[in-house]
């Protein structure tokens, strides 16, 4: 399927995202000297920037590509949670599934960066304990309630607490009941949570960790995908391999997708863009191979941008 045809099919498709919502905070400044107190750069503050991170960045990518999205996740009862929800709403992201947990803080990654986009330091504000009790039950209820209009369900797991075994199983059950795809961007400690998923998208480090093998060639990737599928109990696997592209193990066959990036500025959030495009492609009725081709093109664009970023439908159309 041609990219132009696929973009027509994904326009307006609805994705339900369940995952770890995060706020990316950048403190930007100039560096002209090293501190006399310690061998560290002195950053002359210029400005603050806030961007959507984690599952919120996945949602932002879906909106940018022309889809509709509803999110389910957990934030703290704090200013960061309010800022995150407000920025999501302003971006056109549905926030009806956000659950407030007074016992935890909203996940915020603070990066100190120079005006030349060099990272100096990072501070993480988080409580990454898995949800349980009333908060976990509330998230599961949101999955049941908000899945009705969805063309696909996407689990964006960053190990920040929103995805428990019960939450993952609820997403799988609802997707199976409705006959829609379930996509998972995984983390290795939760690998046993994803059985029954339509497609799981590990990067090559995650695939190596799960399969206990090194991936240095397409043959290695082929074998790793097969082992990963058997280990997890999912239907299909897409291994993202950075500058080596992607390897897809689908029901209809296997495909090697060479990387399309011309220039790499920052790989932060590239996996978010990949699974966003993949979900929209499947939601639009594309084969997994066609959806993966779209995702590969989107990845080639987004790694040329700094920080968590999005790819628009227009950029996908114009990308050679």
Q: SSE layout and pairings?
A:
Blueprint lengths: L2 H8 L3 E6 L1 E14 L6 E14 H10 L3 E9 L2 H13 L2 E8 L5 E8 L4 E7 L7 H14 L5 E5 L8 H14 L3 E4 L13 E2 L3 H8 L6 H15 L3 E5 L5 E5 L2 E5 L12 H14 L4 H15 L10 H6 L2
Parallel strand pairs: 1-4, 1-8, 2-6, 4-5, 8-9, 9-10, 10-11
Antiparallel strand pairs: 2-3, 6-7, 11-12, 12-13
What does the average pLDDT come to?
Answer: 93
Query: Could you tell me the number of beta strands?
Result: 13
Distance between the termini: 15 Å
Number of helices: 10
How large a portion of the residues is in β-strands, by DSSP E? 25-35%
- What structural category do the secondary elements indicate? alpha/beta
CATH-defined architecture: 3-Layer(aba) Sandwich
Question: What is the N-to-C succession of helices and strands?
Answer: HEEEHEHEEEHEHEEHHEEEHHH
- The domain tally reads 1
Strand arrangement across the biggest beta sheet? 5-4-1-8-9-10-11-12-13
Radius of gyration in whole Å, from Cα? 19 Å
Give the uncertain stretches in residue-range form: none
Q: What summary fits the major beta sheet?
A: 9 strands, mixed
What is the CATH superfamily? Ribokinase
CA-based shape:
globular
CATH class, named Alpha Beta
Task: Quickly describe the structure.
The chain has helices at 3-10, 55-64, 79-91, 133-146, 165-178, 204-211, 218-232, 270-283, 288-302, 313-318, and strands at 14-19, 21-34, 41-54, 68-76, 94-101, 107-114, 119-125, 152-156, 182-185, 199-200, 236-240, 246-250, 253-257. The protein has 10 helices and 13 strands.
């Amino acid at each position: 399927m041609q990219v132009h045809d696929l973009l027509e099919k994904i326009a307006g498709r609805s994705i339900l995202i369940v995952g770890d919502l995060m706020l990316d905070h950048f403190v930007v400044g100039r560096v002209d000297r090293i501190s006399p107190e310690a061998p560290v750069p002195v950053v002359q503050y210029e400005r603050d920037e806030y961007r959507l991170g984690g599952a919120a960045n996945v949602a932002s990518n879906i909106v940018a590509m022309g889809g509709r999205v509803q999110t389910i996740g957990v934030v703290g009862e704090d200013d960061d949670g309010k800022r995150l929800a407000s920025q999501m709403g302003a971006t056109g992201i549905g926030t009806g599934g956000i659950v407030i947990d007074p016992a935890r803080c909203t996940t915020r990654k603070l990066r100190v960066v120079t005006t030349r986009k060099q990272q100096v330091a990072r501070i993480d504000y988080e409580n990454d304990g898995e949800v349980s009790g009333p908060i976990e039950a509330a998230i599961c209820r949101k999955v049941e309630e908000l899945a009705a209009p969805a063309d696909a369900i996407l689990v964006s797991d960053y190990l920040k607490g929103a995805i428990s075994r019960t939450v993952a199983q609820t997403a799988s059950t609802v997707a199976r009941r409705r006959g829609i795809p379930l996509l998972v961007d995984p983390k290795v400690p939760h690998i046993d949570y994803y059985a029954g998923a339509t497609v799981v998208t590990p990067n090559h480090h995650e695939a190596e960790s799960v399969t206990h093998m090194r991936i240095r060639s397409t043959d290695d990737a082929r074998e790793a995908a097969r082992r990963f599928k058997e280990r997890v109990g999912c239907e299909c696997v897409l291994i993202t391999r950075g500058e080596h592209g992607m390897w897809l193990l689908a029901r209809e066959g296997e495909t090697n997708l060479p990387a399309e990036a011309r220039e790499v500025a920052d790989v932060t959030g590239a996996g978010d863009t990949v699974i966003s495009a993949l979900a929209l492609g499947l939601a639009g009725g594309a084969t997994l191979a066609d959806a993966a081709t779209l995702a590969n093109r989107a990845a080639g664009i987004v790694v040329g941008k700094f920080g968590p970023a999005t790819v628009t439908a227009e950029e996908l159309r114009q990308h050679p």
